[in-house]
Amino acid sequence: MAPPHVMPLATERWALEQLPRDLERLSRLPETWKGLDPTSIAQSVLETLLDMLALDFVGLRFNDTTHVFLRVTPDFESICSPEQIRAALNGWSAPDDTAEGLDLDGQPVRVVRCPLGVSAGIGEILAGSRRTDFPDGQEQSKLRIAASQASLACREMRELSDRRPPEDRRAGPATAQAVAESEWRLHLIINTIPAMAWSTTPDGLIDFCNQNFVDYVGWTAEEISGQGFWPIFHPDDTARLLAAWQEILATKQPRDVEGRIRRADGEYRWFVLRQNPLLDADGAIIKWYGAGADIEDRKRAEAALEEARSALLASEENLNLIINSLPVLVWSARPDGSADFINQSWRDYAGEPADKILEWGFLDLYHPDDVPGMMEIWTRDVAHNDQTALKGRIRGADGQYRWFYFAGRKLTDAQGLVRWFGCNVDIEDLMRTEEALKASEAALRDNERRLEHIINAVPGLVWSADAHGAVTFLSQQYLDYIGMDAGSALAGAWRDAVHPDDAGGLFETWAVALAQGRANEHEARLRSADGGYRWMLFRASPYFDGAGRIAEWLGVNIDIEDRKEAQDALAASEAALRDSERQLQQIVSSIPGLTWSSDARGATTFWSQQYLDYAGARLEDVLGYKFADYIHPDDRDHVMALWAEIIAAGTPGEAELRLRRADGEYRWFLIRACPFFDEHGNLTQWFGVNVDIENRKRAEEDLRQSQGDLAHVTRMTTIGELAVSIAHEVNQPLMAVVTNAGACLRWLDGPQSDIAMARQAAERIVRDGHRAGDIVTSLRNLARKSSPRMERVLLEAVVQPVLDLLGGELKRHGVSARIDLEDGAIAILGDTTQLQQVILNLTMNAVEAMAGGAASPRQLIIHANAREGEALVTVTDTGPGLVLDDTNRLFEAFFSTKAQGIGMGLSICRSIIEAHGGRIWAANNGARGGVFSFTLPLAEGHGVHVSTR
C-alpha cells in the first residue's frame, strides 16, 4: 500500500485533470439534443451524470408530472429496485444543493437535490451515492451545470410547444369577427409568451412592448416607449448596448446582443436580445421586432465553469507545488506499466531530465540485481491487482544506490481510463537499521547461547547471589562437582561442601564483602562428589543497577589445587630461569660479533653489551631508528634503503657498512639479519649479528693493489713486445715531418719561392707532429701507474687510440681492423687506462689467434651499441675460434691456451670489467673465429640516470 499522504494527492491530481474534460462534455450536451423531446433530453442527462459521477442512482422529475425518470447502477439495483427508489424519493425533500441522508432498504444513501430553472420552476435532478464524502465541490459544480443545460433546453422546448400554427386564410376573406378574434389571439399570444417582446420604429425608438416586458421591469409601456427603455439596462452595459444597437440600425443586419436588465425588484438578470427588421416591397425597413430571452442561468453556469476552471488551474498549481515538494519520488504510469509522470524530487534524486526516466527509462536507474524481481512483481500487479508494493535500489545523481519502498494503486475514471499512481519512499536508513537490528538480535541470541555455554564451559564453578548474599544460582558444573541437586544446594546445603577448617574464614570474608559492597576473594577447600577436597579460589563481584545499588553478586570458584602444588615447583623453576638467563647473557656476550634485535618494522629493540661497548652508547641512545647515527654517512642512505627492502621481503639479508667506534674511528662490518616468525607465520621481530670485516677489507684492498700492479706489469710487457711496431708507428710521422720540412725549405729558398706550397708543407708537419704526439701520449697513458679514476668517457676515445697504437702490428700480421659504433658517441663511466688495457689485451689475443691460422682474410671488428642502460662491446676475429667447452675457464688466473702464456691477461680483463660493474664472456663466431664480449654501465645523460644504477 502507498503511504496515506501520497495516494489522496495522486487521486486529487487525477480528478483535477479530469474536470476540464467533464465540463467540456457537459457544455456540448445541447448540441446532441437538437430535435429531441424533453423525455429524451432527461434520459440523456441522467445517463451522462451516472457515467460521469460515482453515483448509485440519479433521477429527474418535472413539475408537471409525478413520474421520476431514473437511472440505477447494476450494483445498487441488485440491492434496491428502481420502484423502491422512486417510492422513497416521492416522499423525500431537502434544500437545494444540500446532501441529506435517505435509508433505502437498510442502505444509508446521501441524496442531493439540484433544481431545474429558477426556484425549480421546471423540475429537479436527484442524485444519490453511498459515499460518505458525497458530493464534493467538483461534483456539485457538474450537477449544477447539467441542471442548467437541461433547464434551458426544456424551457426552449416548452416555448416551442406552446406556439400555435398560423391559420390558413386561403379559404376566403376573413370576416370582421374573425379579424377581431385573430387580433385578440395574437395579442394574447404576444402578451403570454415567456419572453419580453417589443418593436421599434425604423430609427430604433420603442413603440410597443408586451405584457411580459412591462411586468418584468415594473414600468408602464409609456415609460418604456421612445428612448425611455435605456435606464432598464445595467449602467456598465449601457454604452456597449447603445453602440451595438446603433451598429445594427446602421448596417440593417440583426444579431444577438447580451446585457443585464433590471427586474422590478431591482435585481439585474442577463438577457439575450434578438431582433429582425420588417421590410416593405422596396426593401426599406418599416419596423424592428425583437425579443429578449433570460439567460441568467446560462451565465451563472458559464461563470461557475470559469470559476471551476480558475480553481482547477490554482488547484493544479498548488497540487504541483505539493507533489514536487514532497520528500518522496512521486510517479504515475499507464496501464502497460510505463511511466508518464515523475515529480521534481524524482528528477533531483536521479540527476536526469524527465525524458530519460519516463516510459521505461527508469529501469536504467534500478540496480541490475533488482530489476528482474522488481519487473516480475510490477508486471504481475499491473495485470492482475489494484495495488503494488515492492522494494529495490535506485541509483542517485552521485552514482550511489539507495533502497526505496515502491507503493502504487490503480485508479479507473468514469470513462474507464486506467492509470497507476504511486511513490517511492527512501528506506535506506530503515534497511540499514533493520539489518543492524537483525544482526543485533542474532548476535544477542548467539551471545545468550554462548553465555550459557561459557558459564558451563568456564574452567570454574559459576554462581550468583542476591544483594543480601543468599545464593540464587549454581552452574551445572558446580552442582556436578559437589554432587548435589539445585534445590538442596540453593537451600543452603552448598555450605556443607566447604572444608570445616576453611569455612570460618570464607564466610567471614563473604560477610566483609557484603558489608563493604566491594569485590573480594578467598581461598578455601571444597569437597567434590567423590569426597575429596580441592583448593578453590572463591571470587565475588557486585553488580549495580542504574541507581547505583547492588542488584546481585556474581562469583566463580577457580580450582587452584594444581597451582598450590605448583607453587614450590614454580619457585624452583624461577631460580633455574634466572640461572638460564645469566648463562644466555654470557653466551650472547661471548659471540664474536655485535648482536642485536628489532621489531617487525625494523626499529631497534636490543643491542648486546658488547655492541654498546663498541659504540660507546647506552641502549636508549640506539632504540628505534637512532642506530643510523652510528653508520658512516657515505653508507647510511644505501644501507637504510637495503634494510627497507629486506624488511619488505621478510627474508634473511646482509650488507657491508662502516660503523663508528667509541673513539670515533669507523670499521667495516658485515651485517646479517634473520626474521623470526610466530606459530601463525607472522613476522614478529628480527635478529642480527655484525661481524668485523675490517681486516678482510684491507686484504681485499691489498689484493686490488696487487692486481693493479700486475696489470701495470702486463701493460709494460705488452708495450715491450710491441716496441718494434710502436717505434715504426712513431718513426712514420717523424720521417714525414722531416720530409715536409725539407720541402717547405725548398719552397721558401729558391729564386721563385711559393708561399702557398710552403704553407701546405708546414700544415702537414703540424698534422704529423700531432700524430706522433698522440702515439706517445697513448703509450705514456698505458705505461703510467696510477689509481683508477671513474669518469665520463666516450667509448670511441677508448678504442681508437689502441688501434692507432697497434696500427703497425696489425699491418705486420695482415689484419684488417675497423670500429663499428651503432649509436654514435656512446658515453660510458670508467677508467680510460684500465679499459684501454682490456681492448689492448683482447685485440692482441685476436691478432695472435689469426696469425697462427691459415692465410685467409684476417679481419678484426670492434662493435659497440647501447642497450638497457649499458654498453655492449664485442671483439670479433676470423681466427680458428675457441676449442674449450667451458669458455669461463679462459678468465681464470694462470690458465692459458698459448704455449708461452702465463694466463693472467684475461683474468685481469675480467677483474677490470667487474670492477666497472660489467661482465665479460667468450663464444665462437659461428664456424670461424671467436667473439669476446663485455658490458659497461652507460654514463649519466646517455639514456640513464645515476639514481637508476
Task: Describe this structure as you would to a colleague.
A five-stranded antiparallel β-sheet has the order 2-1-5-4-3, with helices on both faces. It has a five-stranded antiparallel β-sheet with strand order 7-6-10-9-8, with helices on both faces. The protein has 28 helices and 32 strands. The radius of gyration is 62 Å and the shape is flat. With 949 residues, it is an alpha+beta fold. A hairpin with a 2-residue loop joins strand 3 (99-104) and strand 4 (107-116). Helix 24 (755-783) packs across helix 25.
Give a quick account of the main beta sheet: strands, pairing sense, barrel closure.
5 strands, antiparallel
C-alpha end-to-end distance: 73 Å
Percent strand equals 15-25%
Structural class: alpha+beta
Oligomeric nature of the chains: single chain
Task: Kindly provide the radius of gyration, computed on alpha-carbon positions and rounded to a whole number of angstroms.
Answer: 62 Å
Work out the number of β strands: 32
Q: So what's the overall shape?
A: flat
* Average of pLDDT: 82
Helix content: 40-55%
Please give the order of strands in the largest beta sheet. Answer: 2-1-5-4-3
- Give me the number of helical elements: 28
Poorly predicted runs = 1-7, 944-949
